[in-house]
Structure formats: structure tokens, C-alpha cells
Amino acid sequence: MDYQNRAGSKKGGGGVAGFSETNADRRERLRKLALETIDIEKDPYFFKNHLGSFECKLCLSIHLSDGSYLAHTQGRKHQTNLARRAARDQREGRTDTLLLTNGTSETAGVGASSIQVKKNLVKIGRPGYRITKIRDPVTRQQGLRFQLQYPEITTEIKPRHRFMSAFEQLVENANDNKRFQYLLVAAEPYETVAFKIPNKEIDRRPGKFWTHYDQDTNEYFLQLVFKVENNDRYNGVPGLR
Question: Where is this region: Disordered (predicted)?
Fold first, then answer.
């Protein structure tokens, strides 16, 4: 067989590598280079999601393995975004600690105080909770009282809450759940919990809606009541607007 005019014409040698083989070899070389220079556990943009994939919070990219993520950190997109982030922080007068490609930290910006990039904490599970249905004795408004326990929470962190509409969440079909909204409560290192409640307007007057965090027992309380229409049944009821 004539090998004279073929690519890789030496007999017994492999053919010319294709695009996939070249790309795989490049990514492997970048991964080895990153392993020698970067401590992935100290990378503030590294995040492992609940599906086992790896995310870059700077570039909003998803990677199937840590090797793929490390190769990404050596690429043009990640390095460009690092430079843009440093330039923006300097322009805004902030001082952030950035992780460079050689694994060292550098201070960017000219601000007076240092803002440390927050590292992802390992979630330790969901908090215990108790939900009680309530009714205002005067206005007869229906409501809910939430009690959540955070025994392992640190003293520097306090639970926070917010309300989410059915169109913000991605778990259920929003069109089928327009009658509901979601109450989210977050406190690290615990997982964020969400409660599905009726999609009614919440009465935020003093005494109707309140929150309290007991630092002695590490318990978080939240109470809410729903507004009612001012129809004939409630005319003349004191305290109802």
C-alpha cells in the first residue's frame, strides 16, 4: 500500500489528530497546569451544585468535572472576566481579594476597607420547623406562624426571609400555581427552605406581620396574616381598614 502522499505518511504512525483529539489534549494540558498553580478549594468562584456539576460563578458556566473547571480557569473567557472584575472594582472604589492564576491572592481597587469574597459554606441540612394556623380574634383574619430552629447557626448570622412569586421559581409550572406564592427563609450553613402559601395580599401593619430571632434558643419566628376584602360582613369591625 502506498503511504507516500498521505498525511502522517510514516508507516506504523498514527494519522493526524482530529479536532476532538486536539481539543482533549489541550484541555488535559491546561488541567495539569492549573493543578500545579491553583488550589481549587480557595477559588471564590468555584461552586459545586446539588447535581454534582461544577459551576464558575464569574462566567456562569457549568462543568462536568473539576478538570474541566480547572481548564476553564486557564482559558481566555475566564481570564478576561477576571480582568473586567478587577477593573470594575477599582472604578467603583472597592477593594476585593482576587485569586490569580498562580494561586496567590492580590488586592484590587483603591477602597479604604477590604471586602473579602465570601466562600461557599458546606450546607449541613434543613432546619427544623413548625407551622401553626392562626386567626386574628378581632378582625377574624387568617394567618400563619412559622417557627424555625437553627441550633448550629453562628452568632454573626441571622436568618433572613423574602417572598417569591410562582413565576420566579423553577420547580413547578408557574401557570398551574398562580394561586400560590413562596416564603423563603435562609440562614447559613443551613439550606434555604421554602413554604408554599396562598397567593393573597399580606397585611403588613404593625402587629399583623412581624419577625423575631431569639439568639438564646436560636429560633426564628415569623407571623403573617392575609388581608380580607372590606365587604358587608366586616363593616364596623374595629382595626380593619
Answer: 1-22
